[in-house]
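Notes to self after the Tuesday call (sharing in case useful).
The group wants a holo model before anyone commits to mutagenesis around the pocket. I volunteered. Ligand is pyridoxal-5'-phosphate. Logging inputs and output together so the record is complete.
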Amino acid sequence: MNEFKEILRETEISANSTFDVSSIRNDFPILQTLVRGKPLIYLDNAATTQKPQAVIDKITDYYTSGNSNIHRGVHLLSQKATKEYEDSRKTIQQFIGAAHPEEIIFTRGTTESINLIASAWGRQNIGPGDEIIISHMEHHSNIVPWQMLCKEKGAGLRIIPINDDGELIYDEYLRLINEKTKLVSVVHVSNSLGTVNPVKDIIREAHKYNIPVIVDGAQSIQHLEVDVKDLDCDFFAFSGHKIYGPTGIGVLYGKKQFLEEMPPYQGGGDMIASVSFEDTTFNELPYKFEAGTPNIAGAIALAEAVKYLNNIGIARIAKYESGLLDYAIDAIGPVSGIRLIGTARNKSSTCSFVLDGVHPHDIGTMLDVDGIAVRTGHHCTEPVMKRYGVPATTRASIAFYNTKEEINVLVKSIEKVIKMFS
Ligand code: PLP
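Result:
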């Protein structure tokens, strides 16, 4: 434990006055946990992030003193819960720069957001012979819904290839666009490579031909400043749990004109204006897309996470994380036998690697002995693994509560693994 205290003290000294990591770490109770007797070093932030006390308290407070169903109650608790839920929508709207609160649809997460678009917009707008462009570095949740839609409609999926560094080959994207292209759906930041894609350019190019663009923001929203108006994306999807909020809540942003024209995704309570056995008229936005009782506590706690981040400032977080990622890459890259997977010039958060002769699962298991949590596997990006000819990678993904000292411990632990297997 003393070693860890020493690490934190060093961090405090090294943290510049505008970014006090040790004070930030105090906001995250789980970071005090010991794993197998060692201080937890949590480097699995691309899978899910840890929660600050403010978010945990918000959930407890809601269920302790505010729990009620929303929208239809005349009693005080229901009105209070409704207000908090709708205020949360406004917090998210402002956070991503959306023009209207009704452009924010609460979903279960990125996966559901993309499935919503595929089901509601896709079924209406994709037909035989049409083409949908995605990239080679998509998460399965931005591949499979489109594959299913294409099979159903007789449409085709076109893939923007990536180079050896894990960057999109932009000229190939330009070549893929043609009169059959009906949609472009791309990831903002790759979860397995860390590549930050030039989504603004991708959107501008698609819009020249009136092609709508979806941005999968699951790995960007927590690391970069996102302004959907500035990006001019037509849809943007993200998950609450990757931005220090709870699981089971996420967001679909859609431009009002698209959402207005789309049919509902699911039928049920709240998404209707009136129902008879003969017919149903649908509710207005955003309720048309929020059938049934939503994750009220989740939405409220997600807004709390956003407020927490806003207090620190995403720009400052991005700057700190960028320095830390460079440090990690410089420390891990040169270790003998390591091959970095994903060496794009513009990267965020993620350092994936393979080690000669050692399976990533063995690496992950051995790092766990030292209290280090990393992810090993294909990271739901099997085509990326195939592209690099590896079955899996070890992925260390950082957040703004991580420190250089934690990276040093990681490197030492990797070196131990190498010694053990050589
Ligand atoms: N897209 C990307 C880039 C991701 O990294 C993830 C999750 O890791 C998803 C989509 C799916 O997110 P969720 O499982 O929260 O729906």
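Two things stood out.
Residues 109-111, 139, 141-142, 187, 191, 216, 218-219, 239 surround pyridoxal-5'-phosphate (CB under 6 Å).
Residues 1-17 have pLDDT under 50 and may be disordered.
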